[in-house]
Amino acid sequence: MSIEHPSFGRLADDRVIIFDTTLRDGEQSPGFSMNLEEKLRMAHALAELGVDVMEAGFPIASMGDFDSVRMIAEQVRGPVICGLARSAPGDILRAAEALAPAARKRIHTFISTSPLHMKYKLRMEPEQVLEAVSASVGLARQHTDDVEWSAEDGSRTEPDFLCRAVEAAIIAGATTINVPDTVGYALPEDMARIFTMLRERVPGAEKVIFSTHNHNDLGLAVANTLAAIRAGARQVECTINGIGERAGNAALEEAVMVLRTRHDAVPYANNIKSEKILKTSRLLATITSFDVQPNKAIVGRNAFAHESGIHQDGMLKNAATYEIMTPESVGWSKTSLVMGKHSGRAAFRDKLRALGYGELGDNQINDAFVRFKALADRKKIVYDEDLVALVDDEVVRDHQRVRFVALDVHAGSRGPARAELELEVDGVSHTASANGDGPVDATFNALRAAFAHDARLVLFSVGAVTEGTDAQARTTVRLEEGGKLVDGQGADTDTIVASARAYIHALNKLLVKRARTEPGEMGQARLKP
Question: Looking at the predicted structure, is the pLDDT value of residue 141 above 80?
Answer without folding.
Answer: yes
